[in-house]
Amino acid sequence: MAVRGEFLYEGKAKKIYATEDPKVLWMYYKDDATAFDGAKKGIINNKGIMNNRVSNLLFRLLEENGVETHLIEPLDERNVLVKKLDMIPVEIVVRNKVAGSLAKRLGIEEGTDLKGTIIELYYKNDELGDPMINEYHAEVMGWATRNELKEMQEKALKINQVLVHFFDSIGIILVDYKLEFGRLDGRVILGDEISPDTCRLWDKESLEKLDKDRFRRNLGKEEEAYMEVVRRIEAKLG
Ligand code: TMP
Ligand code: ASP
Hints:
With 238 residues, the chain is α+β, with helices and mostly antiparallel strands. It has two domains: 7-83, Phosphorylase Kinase, domain 1; 86-237, ATP-grasp fold, B domain (D-amino Acid Aminotransferase, Chain A, domain 1). Helix content is 32%, strand content 33%.
């Protein structure tokens, strides 16, 4: 049984602790919700419990499909053991439909279909508001090597195949989402979380939003929407 050790770091949605094993971290999921790089703050009741559940089930599904993740073992409702990674400060956003900042930036209506998958890179830096970058920035600034960038994008496309198919099978459109990767023993591995906080998830029939856009856009019923995602994922993978 792992023992929670020294507190290491608090992010916007999680707290990270050491364990007695230097290769293993303890992640605690909070209910705090933020948007717009922390400018909007709130609480979504039970969000930590729901995101922990969703992320663990999706990471297990990805592992079963040959995608290595940091997941070691869920501990309880809010806590999970993960492999310690050397995190790469480049966020990968994968888009299957136009929404959010892409809709705004290019003046294209939200919900518009894309002919293929779009991958975008962002520099993970809250103070700067996670600015969009390209591979040249990432490589020249020393945030990731060319090989790591290639590996991250190849893995993102593989993850996308698995997740689009899975969400479709539970009546959900995976519109877009954010991934974070880290280094371990020379490999690039999926870290952080995949949850309604980090994805846009629309009901296939009603197009109702089942994700953090309910909070960002003051649509209400956040907890109910997250719960619906948990319910559908658990019915299939739980
Ligand atoms: P965007 O439309 O705001 O660029 O977001 C694209 C997707 O990435 C959306 O599903 C939300 C997710 N995302 C995060 O999880 N964290 C972030 O910091 C950003 C910018 C986006
Ligand atoms: N995760 C970022 C924040 O908390 C951006 C977002 O999700 O809107 O500000």
